Amino acid sequence: MRFCSELAKLLRAESLIFMQQAAYCDESGKHDQAECFVMSGMVTHDWDRLSDEWSSALKDMGIQCFHAADCEKQHGEFEGLSLERCEAIQDRLIRVMIRSKIPAVTTFIRRDGYEAVKHRLRTVAKYKSIYFLGFEAAIVNMLHLAKNSEVAFIFDRQREYQGRAKELYDLLTQHPTFPHASRLGALTFEAKDRAIPLQAVDLFAYESYRRITDLNSKPRWQMRLLNQMKPRPRLSHINKSILERLADSMEKYRSELD
User: Is 250 helix (H, G, I), strand (E, B) or coil?
Assistant: First the structure.
């Protein structure tokens, strides 16, 4: 009996190592006037609990699709709702995220720091948008959270960027120096109303952006509540020092190819 128990533990551990996980990612601050760009993601092998509870909550509250910015500003579906009602919606949905126990991380990049080095980071003009650095950083962070698992990526639909992002992703899967290329699963871009987890990541991205752009104030109650998630959400800053080192590395790599 002990042998079977130990064998079951080991087999379960092995299956979790190789089970494909799904990472949902969404951004905030992509407009040129934004002082920073945020890309948030959550990754797990089982999204059923969050999706079921989220859908049930939306149905109870008479909401078709949650959009964090619309809820905050009482636009769209949330037009005419009181502030108290909108905050009650946020509170209920954040508690769904807490119960899900899904790891989450936000990567943020200060736009002024990126603009200073983007000409050194990218030589191909069509890839110079800050979106693509955030896109690639999300991939790296999600792979890290998923440990040894293969990861399928689902990003929020962005017609402006998704074609070029798919090009970069395909290059990454074939790149000889990227150590996790074999773990890159399918990449898709989906609308929030068709992918419930994107609505949760949208809420996390929005609150991350609000926090990062107002560090001198106390955290909003929404972020304080999100910080009750286990594991606690992480904020990863690609700061000026990292950008400079990345630019130096890319210039060295290109010079070696010449």
Answer: helix
What is d(CA 148, CA 146) in angstroms, rounded to the nearest whole number? 6
Q: Would you say 106 and 40 are in contact if contact means Cβ atoms under 8 Å apart?
A: yes
Question: Is 71 among the domain residues?
Answer: no
Size of the chain in residues: 258
Task: Please give the torsion angle defined by the CA atoms of residues 88, 92, 98 and 103, in that order, rounded to the nearest 10 degrees.
Answer: -90
DSSP one-letter code for 30: -
User: What three-state secondary structure class fits 37?
Assistant: strand
DSSP secondary structure letter of residue 241? H
By DSSP bridging, strand 36-44 and strand 21-28 are antiparallel
Q: How many CA atoms lie within 13 A of 170 on its CB side?
A: 7
- What's 27's domain CATH number? 3.30.420
Task: Judge whether 164 and 127 are in contact, CB under 8 Å.
Answer: yes
How many structural domains compose the chain? 1
229 in any annotated domain: yes
Domain of 251? 20-45+103-257
Instruction: Kindly report, residue by residue over 207-253, the tens digit of the pLDDT.
Output: 999 999 998 899 999 999 999 999 999 999 999 999 999 999 999 88
Residue 70 lies in a domain: no
Tens-digit pLDDT profile for residues 75-107: 999 999 999 999 999 999 999 999 999 999 999
C-alpha span between 77 and 163 (Å, rounded) = 29
Pick the closest to residue 30 from 105, 127, 129, 136 (CA basis). Answer: 129
Tell whether 159 is covered by a domain: yes
Question: Residue 150: which region, alpha, beta or left (left: phi > 0; alpha: psi -120 to 50)?
Answer: beta
